[in-house]
Design a protein that fits this description.
The complex is a heterodimer. By secondary structure, chain A is an all-alpha fold. Chain A is 74% helix and 0% strand. The longest helix of chain A is centred in the middle third of the chain and has 36 residues. Chain B has a 4-stranded mixed β-sheet with strand order 2-1-3-4. In chain B, helix 1 links the parallel strand 1 and strand 2. The chains are: A mainly alpha, B alpha+beta.
Amino acid sequence: MDPILAFADWLVYGVFGYEAGTHAGDAINFFVYDVIKIFILLMSMIFLVSYIRTYITPEKARKFLGERTGIQYNLMAAMVGVVTPFCSCSSVPIFIGFVGAGVPLGVTFSFLITSPMVNEAAVAVLGGSIGWAATAVYVISGVLIGTFGGYIIGKLKLEHLVEDFVYKTFIGEGLDPETMAWQERKDWAWGETRDIVLKVWPYILIGVGVGAIFHGYAPEGIMAEYAGKENLFAVPVAVGLGVPLYSNVMGLIPIAESLIGKGLPVGTALAFLMSVTALSLPELIILKKVLKPKLIMYFVAIVTTGIIITGYIFNLIL
Amino acid sequence: MKIEILGSGCAKCRSLEANVREAVKELALDVEIVKVDDFAEIAKRGVMVTPALVVDGKVLLNGKVPKVSKIKKLLTR
């Protein structure tokens, strides 16, 4: 048996004296179990990926991608997006740094689409709540939507829709890729872990709390009734709901978990979470500094379509 | 000596600025500290990950916020 579940059972049913199978007992057990599991995963995952990140810097990625086109470079750029930081404040400097130095627009977009969608914190919370199979689906879809979305943008030849200053910006050399000692990498990774956990913990607690109440008190199968697979509007509506929601994605994942438990199809839930991370109003506003509105519309349309298709596909096969 | 702090207003940029100001105060340096938040200006200096510390046009740090003691070492080098 899962030791964390055993602990949650012992604490809630044994020490607190709640009865298993009651609304309150189920809700509190869900809360204790999810919080412990999510925080253990969150800390180990962020530490691991931050450590890897000390080796894969955007400067190295830019050199590696070069000026070549071809879908394999879109794929590589999307994978670089997985390991770079998810803060939207760094996406624009990287965009300018890539395009200004000659990385093709489509390849840069593959990076830009996947980077916010797939990050270690979301992966840890997804794995801890919804499970690893759905997490793998989420990560692979995020990389593929970035790869093909960027490829299409490259094929559409939209270079004229990037603000002119991006091409005119002389890109400086930046920092020499320093050789960090093991200790320094470890310290940096630990600093990142602390920063991110301190930033997201309230959202996770609120999300798990809401999810726990829903888990304990909502009628079985209620989501299947209103947003089941046969309701074809459910996926686009879920994607539309996701756009205005942004910083609280870590909190939305445990809520999505409880909705899946009450019959929401996994594909619909993943499509919702993808649209929360991939398309956010603050990011679109920041992107306006480097992209003309028409290109932002292409970006939103391509990513939305990709996410909706992914939602339908996974509702069919899962 | 001219010190530039590059960043678009994220929390880390503010803590880097605070640490740099503290280091400058402790070293009693006569310097000009400028905040650069324009994306084009940041790109011109070759920086893709903010916050970054630029001293007399040379990028000394990016993507991290070191302790005051480490910044003092960087500034006196």
